[in-house]
Amino acid sequence: MTAAAALGIDRGLFGKVVGWTLGMMLGSVWSFAFCLVLIVVDLALLTVKVRTLPAGRRGWLSALASPLMVFGIYTIAPPYTFYPHGPWAVVGAVIAPMVLVALVVRVFAGQKPPR
Fold first, then answer.
1. Which UniProt keywords apply (predicted)?
2. Are 103 and 110 a contacting pair, CB within 8 Å?
3. Which of 38, 93, 95 is closest to 65 using CA atoms?
4. Domain extents in the chain
5. Maximum CA pair distance of the chain?
6. Structure pTM?
């Protein structure tokens, strides 16, 4: 978003600043929601003792790859295409890929707990 505002994709300074501000606010809300989903999935997997938290190289790679995987799913099935089905369908189309990626990444990146 910062690059789009700096490169002048929007017209005029006011449009750039407003577009940048709205994009950063939306990105912040999305990031908070994704982090919350990751925390809930981590706690659920720790509770049932399926996996431990990913650490080290696996942890860094999963942290860097998981948002890109979610955006890849958004590219295949954009959330705005669910608009005719109502606002809850759009919310579900935003949240469901987050949960799916969080589960897959945590199961494959985490280690089995010691017994």
1. Membrane, Transmembrane, Transmembrane helix
2. no
3. 38
4. 37-109
5. 62
6. 0.77
